[in-house]
Design a protein that fits this description.
alpha+beta, six-stranded mixed sheet, 17% helix, OB fold (Dihydrolipoamide Acetyltransferase, E2P), three-stranded antiparallel sheet
Length: 172
């Protein structure tokens, strides 16, 4: 029993020498990608996974031109959309850097083809620019941005995309 008391006392002494943890900063995590020639960022919690571009996408007759078709992803069919073509920009030219961002939002499961993904980025919430608007084809989905290091990072809102009636109606 004496040994346990000694271990407890040693643990308490060691704990006093540990650095105090700093308070957690309010951070926002995003995935940076290109769409319609613009570098944008979307919330990590809006994108469930990222896949390499699939060569085997089966076209769906009667679908709008921006619907690339269906891909078999782990034995489940995933509708695949060319995000740029949906936005009215040039279609994504498939390459090694093309990615499929999988969304599971508002009862919708869909893959968005984007030309490239640059990685994950962390932003401090104090750097958020609320009500920042972007002109052009992305404007309907950008409601805010972050400013850090003199750079502006528009936030592409995937929830707004998933709620768009035009996006949800893929039949031609």
């Amino acid at each position: 029993m004496n040994v346990l008391s000694e271990i407890e006392q040693a643990s308490r002494s060691a704990a006093l020498q540990l650095p105090q943890s700093s308070p957690v900063r309010d951070m926002w995590d995003g995935l940076v990608f290109r769409a319609a020639g613009v570098r944008v960022v979307s919330a990590m919690n809006e994108i469930s996974e990222m896949l390499p571009y699939q060569d085997r996408i089966t076209r769906v007759p009667g679908a709008k031109p921006w619907v690339l078709g269906l891909a078999n992803v782990r034995s489940s069919l995933l509708p695949v959309i060319d995000l740029q073509a949906f936005l009215g920009a040039n279609a994504v030219v498939p390459s090694k850097s093309s990615r499929i961002l999988v969304l599971r939002l508002r009862g919708l499961v869909v893959g968005l083809v984007v030309p490239s993904v640059q990685g994950m980025r962390h932003f401090n919430l104090k750097d958020r620019l609320p009500d920042a608007r972007l002109k052009g084809v992305l404007g309907a989905y950008v409601y805010d941005a972050f400013e850090t290091g003199g750079e502006i990072w528009p936030v592409f809102n995937m929830h707004a995309l998933a709620a768009d009636p035009d996006f949800r109606s893929a039949a031609a």
